[in-house]
Amino acid sequence: xxxxxxxxxxxIVAINLFVALLCACIVIGxxxxxxxxxxxxxxxxxIGVGTGIVILLxxxxxxxxxxxxxxxxxxxxxxxxxxxxxxxxxKKKQFFRNFMTITLFGVIGxxxxxxxxxxxxxxxxxxxxIGTLEIADYLGVVNDATSVVLFNAIQSFDISxxxxxxxxxxxxxxxxxxxxxxxxxxxxxxxxxxxxxxxYFGRHSTDREVAVMMLMAYLSYMLSExxxxxxxxxxxxxxxxxxxxxxxxxxxxxxITTKHAFATLSFxxxxxxxxxxxxxxxxxxxxxxVSDSPGTSVxxxxxxxxxxxxxxxxxxxxxxxxxxxxxxxPYEKIGIKQQVTVWWAGLMRGAVSMxxxxxxxxxxxxxxxxxxxxxxxxxxxxxxxxxxxxxxMTKPLIRLLLPSPKPLLSRSLSSEPSSxxxxxxxLLSNGNGSEVDxxxxxxxxxxxxxxxxxxxxHNVHYYWRKFDDAFMRxxxxxxxxxxxxxxxxxxQSGHQLQ
Length: 498
What we know:
Layout: H1 6-31, H2 40-58, H3 71-88, H4 92-97, H5 99-125, H6 135-138, H7 148-155, H8 164-199, H9 206-226, H10 231-249, H11 252-280, H12 284-288, H13 294-325, H14 336-345, H15 351-361, H16 370-401, H17 407-413, H18 449-454, H19 460-476, H20 489-497
C-alpha cells in the first residue's frame, strides 16, 4: 500500500479542518440568525481567528504553514460566484431607477475616496518610520471591490513622475477598463440568452440549460482576465443581463435550480473567504517584521481607518445632495438617515482589500521588506476591525435609522418571488387595481397613485423599458416573450410515471 506523502497528508488535514469549520460556521450562524448583531460572515471571521490562535498554540508559536493566502484561489475560484450572484439577484427595477446615482457613487465617489485615502496615507506615512514605499504603494492601499479597476489602471502606468499627461492617461485608462469590462459582461449575458432561446436546450434536458448558464457566467469572468480588464465588473453585469433575459428563457425547473445553485455557491464561497482571512491573519511571519514597533503599527492602522471614514463621508453626503437636486418627488430623495446608513455600511473592508494588498506588497504570500510588512499587517487589522466592529453595529444601526415595516406589510412583501430578485411593494394595489387595505398602518405614498401611474417619471428606467420591450426582448427573450415551460420532456414523463 502506498504511503501518503507529508505534503499530501498536510493538504488532507487542511481540507478536513476547513470542511469542519465551514459546517460549524453555518450551524452557529443559523443558531444566531435571530440575533441582531451576528451573521455567518462575522461568525466565520471570528472562528477563523480563533482557529489561527489554536494552531499557533499547538505549534508552539511557530508558523504552521497550514495556510498561505493565494490570490489565484481568491480571484479565480472564490470571488466569481459571489460577484455573479450579486448581479443575478439584484433588484433591476430599483437598480435602473437609481442608475445615475449608483454610477455617481461608483465612479466619482470611488475617485474621491481613492484620492483622500492615497494622498492622506502619503502625507502621514512619510513622517513615520515604516520603511521605504513608492508612490504606487500609496496609491494601492486598502482598495474596496469597486476600486479594482483603479488598482489595475495604476499598475499599468509608471507614476514615479506624475504630470498632467500621465494624469489624463490614467483617467482614460480607468474609464476604458470600466466601460470595456461592463460591455464584455453585457455581451456574454446576451450571448447566453440568445443561445438558450434559439437552441432551447430544455426540450432535451434542463441539465444542459443550467450547465450553459454556469459556464457562460464563468467564461465572462475568465475572458475579462484574459483581456486584462476588470473581471469583477464583467461578471457582475453578466449576472444582471442573465437574470433579465436568460433566466426567463429556461424551463421552470431550471429557474429554480439556477436560483438556488448560484445563491448556495455564493454563500459557501463567502463563508470560506472570511474563514480563510481570519486564519491567515494569524500567520506569524507577517507580524515578525513589525513586532519591534507595535505603537507604529497601531498608528498606521488607525490612520487608515480614519482616512477610510473621511474618504467615504467626503463623497456619500455631497453626492447624495447633488443626486437629490435631480429628484422631484420627496419620496425619491435620499434622506439623511439613509445617507448615514450608506456611509456606515460601506466602511467595512473584506477579502478584496487583502487580496489587492497581497498583490502589491508580497511575493507568494510572503514579504521581507519592513514597509511592505507594515502595509500587510495594517490591512489585516483594518479588515478585522472593520468587519467585526462595524459589521456588528450595522444591523442595530439600520434598525434604529430605518425601522422595518409593520408585520402585516412585511408579510405582503416577503412572498415567494417569481424571479431571482426579491419582490418589492407592488405599487400598493391588488389585482383589481384598487389599493390594498392596510388598516391603520401609516405607509408613505403619493397623494394620487393613479396620477403617478398615468404619468410615469421619465428617468433612465422609463426609457430603458421602452427600448427593451421594442428591440431587446423580441431578440433575446425575457419575461412575457417566451412561453412558460415547467420542465423538460424527460422530467415531465418522470412525474407522470410517479
